[in-house]
Write a structure and sequence with these properties.
- By secondary structure, the chain is α/β, with parallel strands linked by helices.
- The chain is about 30% helix and about 20% strand.
- The chain has 7 helices and 8 strands; from the N terminus they run βαβαβαβαβαββαβα.
- It has an 8-stranded parallel beta barrel with strand order 1-2-3-4-5-6-7-8.
- Helix 1 runs parallel beside helix 7.
- The longest helix is centred in the C-terminal third of the chain and has 13 residues.
- The radius of gyration is 16 Å and the shape is globular.
- The N and C termini lie close together (about 5 Å).
- The model has no long low-confidence stretch (mean pLDDT about 95).
């Protein structure tokens, strides 16, 4: 059964839905004002405080400074998902697990990060993360074997979740825009529920 991460959570209403549907992970975008899903750390702290303890909270961040990473740890997140380079000082300073996010243009960096003990998992996304577009999943065949968790992201939705769950070597699926309302503002409860079901049944 595949793990499921619902990313880009922004409201207490959505937290309530997740507590009912129970994906494995909930993602919160912080320190990235370019994203419409970006939260202040106080907003994120409020939401993760309301999250079912069985659902792990993931801080999603791009090229964080050490200070930002330490603030994320202090806020109580279960783990941190980093897009872009992970600095050595962050690797040496924070205690929560790190997921390294890749897009299709930087997969060559995988072996380097796979050797790092602090990295506990990987997220494979499209060339432009957050764009809601898929990529050629066959590219993942070049990824060496690892015992760390591998999450597939990029353009996933209830319609393609079943197919995505069949990708060899993938441990879970990660979606954000694929479970949003037609307006693109906020999540859709039925889409979340359908996505989780499709991911876990296939």
């Amino acid at each position: 059964m595949k793990k499921v991460k619902i990313c880009g959570i922004t409201s207490r209403e959505e937290i309530g839905w997740l507590n009912q549907i129970k994906p494995d992970y909930a993602g919160f975008v912080v320190f990235f004002p370019k994203s419409k899903r970006n939260l202040s750390l106080d907003q994120a702290r409020d939401l993760i405080g309301r999250l079912d303890s069985r659902i792990q909270s993931v801080a999603v961040v791009v090229k964080p400074t050490l200070d930002q990473a330490l603030q994320i740890q202090e806020a109580g997140f279960s783990l941190i998902q980093i897009h872009g380079d992970v600095s050595e000082e962050i690797m040496n300073s924070i205690k929560i697990p790190i997921w390294k996010a890749f897009n299709v243009s930087d997969l060559a960096e995988f072996p380097k990060y796979n050797m790092m003990g602090k990295i506990s998992g990987f997220v494979f996304d499209a060339a432009r993360p957050g764009s809601g577009t898929t990529f050629d999943w066959d590219l993942l065949k070049q990824i060496p074997e690892t015992d760390k968790i591998k999450m597939l992201a990029g353009g996933l939705n209830p319609d393609n979740a079943g197919q995505a769950a069949q990708v060899a070597g993938i441990d879970g699926l990660d979606t954000s825009s694929g479970v949003e309302r037609e307006s693109g503002i906020g999540k859709d409860r039925d889409k979340i529920e359908n996505f989780v079901r499709q991911a876990r049944e296939n």
